[in-house]
Amino acid sequence: MRYSDLANFIDGKPSNPKTPRMERYSPVDGELLSTIPLSDAAELDKAVQAAKTASADWSQWTIKERAGIFFKYYGLLKEHAAEHADLFYHEMGKDPKETPLEVAKSIELTEFACAMPEVCTGDFEVVSRGVECHEERFPLGVVASISPFNFPHMVPHWTMPNALVLGNTMVIKPSREAPLTVLKIAELLKEAGLPDGVFNVVCGGREVVNAIVEHPDIQGITFVGSTKVAQMVYTKGCAKFKRVLALGSANNHLILLPDAHPEGSATNIAASYLGCAGQRCMSACVLVAVGEVDPIIAKLVEESKKYVPGVNLSAIVNPEAKASITGYIDRAEKEGFKLLLDGRKVTPPPGKEKGNYLGPTIIDHARPGSEIAVEENFGPVMTIVRVKTLDEAIEVANSSPYGNGGSIFTQSGRAAEIFCRRIQAGMVGVNVGVPVPREPFSFGGWKDSIFGGGDLTGRSSIGFWTKLKKISVKWNPDKPVNWMA
Ligand code: NAD
């Protein structure tokens, strides 16, 4: 076994519940990595009580003092970046060229949290003669964060640094596929001086999630994962009067116009659908090809061939996910759509024979509305739908139940402007394959890709993690002024 058996991290120390454990095998080469506790409601409660106790003191620190801990953490994270990146390469199979970029994004998210005292400054105004109003933000208390497998380092940093600097204490439930990464993050926070109980990690599956949505002492929940579970967490959490923001699945459309830059577009589109082997909520899924774009598609096929499973193309997280993606390709083939590239049969490089791999797959002339064009398959698969006009292309993209991201590839400013105005998605790009906003802009989709108000990161996160107090003060009670003077 590559690593030792994992324990939860509660109140600044390891906690080993007497619950069943799960073996976790690396998708890279099938090696046994560790065993993971499948925690229960009692273990979750232990973490919540630790967070509740820690909250009494942590919420009284000034925002600058709390940011001070994250300045130290920021330095430590930079120091340990390579070690963290290596961990989740083994855990969830992300290509080693991509893992450092994910850690770099976590560092950027931490940097934003360090700047919170400058961003979250409140407001003040003399609202009438002798009367002033000001705003102050207060933490919610104990909050929970539930994360998916595909960004095991970045997604915890979408929530943890901002929530904590704003005065909350947190229990995080990582994916069963990649808990080791979050446990390492917890260790580093302790080293940075974070008081015990402020950040707790509880490993496990749906039992922990169900306990989170039910727990009376948890005030706010963020979820990132599939739409089915996002909807469950959102409805159950709201029914218990919690603040909930749940991010769900995606099926992002890229529109390709004939005037697009041929090489630049092909390179960008390939990187978008093949990064993390398509296991990204902002991956390109459907290419809506407008008019005569065959020369660019030919370049896309050539570009895609440069991605070799197990060499520079990530592994698929587990055998079940691989079987699910293969099923989508099988059914698309049965529908009569044309496979320009078929990644179902691959030979992994020596030493990785037991890993889970799929090669680049391009399915052309798919019918709009067909399963492969509508559902998220979460694999290295590009589906091409052919249309004649930009209007038709936007209609195809907008017919998706999801609205996470979308992009257009063109050199026409007018076409780009029409697309940006009309596309029903939360994160939109022009000649950008993965239009993820950088800090301080916020991350969040539309439609069935998000449930709840506001976005998860950046400036928008402040509203989610805090409650606002409005304070009116009158210093001259003797003066004959009324409230509206
Ligand atoms: P998932 O929904 O299977 O799991 C997410 C979390 O929910 C995990 O912690 C998991 O343990 C828990 N969970 C799973 N099934 C559950 C159930 N039945 N009841 C209670 N809890 C449950 O998602 P995943 O496979 O880890 O990640 C891939 C999905 O996440 C894709 O759909 C992807 O689009 C989405 N995602 C979305 C975003 C976004 O920003 N919108 C970002 C990353 C991933």
Report on this structure.
With 485 residues, the protein is of the alpha/beta class. The protein folds into two domains: 8-248 and 449-470, Aldehyde Dehydrogenase, Chain A, domain 1, CATH 3.40.605.10; 252-430, Aldehyde Dehydrogenase, Chain A, domain 2. 38% of the residues lie in helices and 22% in strands. The protein is built from 16 helices and 22 strands. A hairpin with a 2-residue loop joins strand 5 and strand 6. The protein binds nicotinamide-adenine-dinucleotide (NAD). Nicotinamide-adenine-dinucleotide (NAD) binds next to helix 8.
The name of the CATH superfamily of the largest domain reads Aldehyde Dehydrogenase, Chain A, domain 1
**Total discrete domains:** 2
Largest sheet: 7 strands, mixed
As a whole number of angstroms, the C-alpha radius of gyration is 24 Å
Q: Strand fraction band? A: 15-25%
What is the fold named in CATH at topology level of the largest domain?
Aldehyde Dehydrogenase, Chain A, domain 1
Task: Give the tally of β-strands.
Answer: 22
Residues in helix, %: 25-40%
Name given to the CATH architecture of the largest domain: 3-Layer(aba) Sandwich
Q: Strands of the largest sheet, in order across it?
A: 14-15-16-13-12-18-19
Mean pLDDT figure: 97
What are the key terms here?
485 residues, 7-stranded mixed beta sheet, single chain, 2 domains, Aldehyde Dehydrogenase, Chain A, domain 1, binds nicotinamide-adenine-dinucleotide, 22 strands, Aldehyde Dehydrogenase, Chain A, domain 2, 6-stranded mixed beta sheet, alpha/beta
